[in-house]
Amino acid sequence: MLLAKDGIFPITKDSLGRQLGEMPASGFAFPGTIQGEGKLCGMPSLFVRLAGCNLHCRWKKAGGGFSPCDTAYAAYETRDARQASVEDVYRTLLMNRGNIRHVVITGGEPFLQAEELRELCRLLKSGESFHVTVESNATLYDEKVAQYVDFFSLSPKFPSSQGGKWIVRKEVIQQFIDCTWKRGKDFQLKFVYSCEKDIAEIKGLLARLRGWKNEDVLLMPLGGTLEEMRANAKETLEHCIREGWRYCDRLHLALFGSQAGV
Ligand code: SF4
Fold this sequence. Notes:
Bound molecules: iron/sulfur cluster
CATH class: Alpha Beta
Number of strands: 12
CATH superfamily: Aldolase class I
Order of helices and strands: EEEEEHEHEHEHEHEHEHEH
Distance between the termini: 21 Å
């Protein structure tokens, strides 16, 4: 599978259990970090970041200029990406798990590598029984992958992130939601709030979906840095309270800053 430059993180050992030369970016001498966003915020976790994305997000900022994808190095500036076997990724996670039960597979867009993703999720749900989250922009769905996933973190992107181009795939999002009901899993719909127009888009989308509750809907301020996020926080919060949606923080920005691999 094609991993982004931070690949599997934060870790201290390779797939054979050998100590790595460098400390993890978290600054801790042990593996693991926390999930910084969403329903599982604060949960000790190991991350696998896959490279490549079928979208190219770039939000226009209210004060001028653009806010790019906060993981552009995983999405479309992938020159530092590297190949690793699924077995190697799985073994590395086992060597670094300690007391951690949660693995988060993120990107880029993980469903672009559906075959490898399915095999990794299958291994994670076998003997060692991890809890598996997959973070996705919800434009691609694969039932063979979904059967091994516990939690879908779906983050559809609106035209405000694509220069006005409509890329929300309502039928794909519905497939994810239906899967959670059919197979007893959970999901969240996590939207980035960049401007007032997003609210109408979100409401329009929700009106066309079945099987969700307000508790499943999260609104997160736009911002790749703590300062940017704080600047958008109040407006985001106001919309959350009015609509009954959850406010979604980016706790890792406050704890670790905007560096990769945490
Ligand atoms: S969908 Fe996510 S990973 Fe892909 S470009 Fe947009 S923000 Fe980045």
